[in-house]
């Protein structure tokens, strides 16, 4: 996703990564029944933009109010990738960090490895206001046990320039079809998870492949998706990796149709001068991502972590994060705040509070070789990444 | 103490050199050594952890998958094209600045060559993106002149132009230094013997400037070879660096494979430097 494209010191990271080893713990911790007094400290792993303390923008500060309210001093370690987050969570046998804002591709790994503790959602008042789909989604709730509380989510919609694209598209074919009238003016996401978008398209258009879940692909299904992406490549002006990239190309009209987040739609519609864009969920459906606050099963400050999850689940805080980050909050109570702050028009692309919208999304999860049928015949994500290189680098 | 050091110049030298030598040895060479060794490890696909056992698995993938060969050839090819373009651009300017321009004009040329280095590398790449955009400076000008329009934004042409611009100062200065060192008497002798300027250029100036040209080319070639920001910012393709990035910090995080691919530019540069040394480039640095 977007945040792993920060400027790295590749070599240093390589040395550090080869020096560090995941600890890994047993798990099996009991759910908390009541929240005791705070321990005075809280160590979090988060995506950049999820724990703002006013240092980026003085108006975006939801960490200091939490510290004043609870006395828990927050320290944040930003994670560059989901893998980095998983490794950090296992540091010191899981004691180094109390919690993490994990994406759907990391959550199930953390749960399966026993790194994160079951969460008693009865202690999280904001949870009741969550969209029903994000109360117990499979990426953070396993066998009825909650392992975290939802935070932000986003859809990958089909965005198009209304002045240039007519009639309004209702299929991803405007990107995938080799005879698309918008060839050379399309944009697609430049990460390997975009393979899932191709798989979703094939699910609708080539039923004989038998794709049921775009994240659980067998070898031939993945090959078909990669072929489709190669066929799509001439249509693509640029594979985008940061939202700003796509906003720029739509502004200069280098691109007129593309896979996008609601954030780009909202910015393009409201910037000066605006670009006449609209977005749709095509007939094939759409993918999306969702993040969850999770607590380490060996957390040193569990009470502070519970207090943080309580705080981060409130409608007020989620509205602040959503506005700063350009995402949609899980808490439905945030929607009226956002609409008030942004204006109805700018808020519309986010579909805040629309449960059927998020319910129909194919939310991000890590492709694993085990796709639930006991046969282990699916292709894992490292292979996705390798094959996707053939598309972008070929 | 000071008397002891005065009497033992070797100890003095050792103490002086220890910190920088240690830095190079530990931080720089150790990092390279880890890179070299980890290229022979591999990632266990089930546990996502690195298996510390030597194998050639990564290199087999590199040899088998045509896409990596394509990426390597593209990276090396564009690096070479950028180097040639930079030499062709830098040589005449450097010659003019070093041998013909008056002192004021010379200062102005040197300043304008270095001026771009005052701004951030990212800003300079981004500027090229704006220049080459569909409605960017180039097309806007062509449009005003009622001429054709060029559609090269986000292509390999755009990458080539941006790189050529980025590394020009690094090629310019070694060539400039080499040209400035040529004694006037050599050129006078050449013309006294009746050589035309083309002959003087070919048989006197170029051979004497060659170490400088090769030294400059080391910069433009190696800097292009290792870059991974420009190809994705102004272009729409991948360099070796992008694949390494994806494997080191991307979701797949197959660090051993990234390390193996990172050895390709290291090997290419080793050969390049060997040839450059043979051509006497290091005498011009």
Write the layout of secondary structure elements.
The complex is a heterodimer of chains A (394) and B (285).
Chain A: H1 10-19, E1 41-46, H2 64-70, E2 73-78, H3 82-89, E3 99-103, H4 104-112, H5 132-135, E4 141-142, E5 145-146, E6 149-155, E7 157-161, H6 173-176, E8 186-189, H7 195-205, H8 219-232, E9 236-240, H9 243-251, E10 257-260, H10 262-270, E11 277-280, E12 287-295, H11 302-312, H12 315-325, E13 328-329, H13 334-342, H14 344-347, H15 355-359, E14 362-363, H16 381-393
Parallel strand pairs in A: 1-2, 1-3, 8-9, 8-10, 12-14
Antiparallel strand pairs in A: 3-12, 4-5, 6-12, 6-13, 7-10, 7-11
Helix pairs in contact in A: 3-4, 7-8, 8-16, 9-10, 12-13
Chain B: H1 2-7, H2 9-38, E1 42-43, E2 50-51, H3 57-64, H4 66-100, H5 103-114, H6 121-132, H7 137-144, H8 156-181, H9 184-192, H10 197-226, H11 230-233, H12 240-248, H13 255-278
Antiparallel strand pairs in B: 1-2
Report a brief summary of the structure.
The complex is a heterodimer of chains A (394) and B (285). Chain A has 16 helices and 14 strands.
Report the helical percentage of chain B. Answer: over 70%
Rg of Cα set of chain A: 21 Å
Based on secondary structure, the structural category of chain A is: alpha/beta
Our Rg estimate of chain B from Cα atoms comes to 24 Å
List SSEs of chain B in N-to-C order.
Answer: HHEEHHHHHHHHHHH
| Most strands sheet of chain B | 2 strands, antiparallel
Tell me what the structure shows.
The complex is a heterodimer of chains A (394) and B (285). Mean pLDDT of chain A is 87; it is low at 1-28. Chain A has two domains: 2-151 and 291-348, Periplasmic binding protein-like II (D-Maltodextrin-Binding Protein, domain 2, 3-Layer(aba) Sandwich); 157-285 and 368-393, D-Maltodextrin-Binding Protein, domain 2. Helix content of chain A is 35%, strand content 16%. Chain A is α/β, with parallel strands linked by helices and 394 residues long. In chain A, the strands form three sheets. In chain A, strands 1, 2, 3, 6, 12, 13 and 14 form a seven-stranded mixed sheet that branches. In chain A, strands 9-8-10-7-11 form a five-stranded mixed sheet, covered by helices on one side. In chain A, helix 7 packs across helix 8 (219-232), helix 8 packs parallel to helix 16 (381-393) and helix 12 packs across helix 13 (334-342). Chain B is an all-alpha fold and 285 residues long. Chain B has a single domain (65-283), classed as MetI-like (MetI-like fold, Orthogonal Bundle). Helix content of chain B is 75%, strand content 1%. Chain B is built from 13 helices and two strands. In chain B, helix 6 packs across helix 8 (156-181). At the A-B interface, helix 1, helix 3, strand 9 and helix 16 of A face helix 2, helix 4, helix 12 and helix 13 of B.
